[in-house]
Fold this sequence. Notes:
Elements: E1 2-3, H1 14-31, H2 36-43, H3 51-65, H4 68-79, H5 91-96, H6 102-111, E2 117-118, H7 129-141, H8 150-161, H9 165-174, H10 182-199
Antiparallel strand pairs: 1-2
Amino acid sequence: MLNQQAFSTDRIDESDQLRVNVYRLLARLLRQPPDAPLLTVLKQMTGDDSELGQAITELAQAATATSLAASRDEYNVLFIGLGRGILTPFGSYYLTGFLHEKPLARLRDDMGPLGIARSDDVKDPEDHVAALMEMMAGLIDGSFGSVQPIPAQKVFFDRHVASWTPHFFKDLENCPSAGFFKPVGRIGRLFMAIEQGAFEM
Length: 201
């Protein structure tokens, strides 16, 4: 969803790489309907005994239990629908009840100085939850030109991620129409709490 024209040569440690991996997993799951290669990868995932690890195991089990057609249908029901899906995965909507509002303008103002630009072939506003997950991953691993220090990551997270995505992920986890995507919501909810707690230390 984003132009990543410059890649940092800075190395990041293992814990930051794990953060990047979770952000990119969430971005891929929420960006577009699943495809066969994604379901194959998800089926092979294993988690540890932590709450987040258990949610990852649940996602692997859900990927095994679903079909490609069913998972794609569920994505469309949840996020697209005939006019709008059950959930509207945009920051402006969650924060104001409308699309293309001030939260989007504030996000765009903050993207430029960080080297983040929307890809020309993407029609969705930049405050889509998948785009924000990609942005966080890029700030951590330097995909937009340089690895951003923790204080800069925290500022971006607080302004554009923590302000609404925990509510979105909770809604996804609890949505009666979510089957395959229920553990996606749980992973997102737990991971956002982990990130918020770490930034506050």
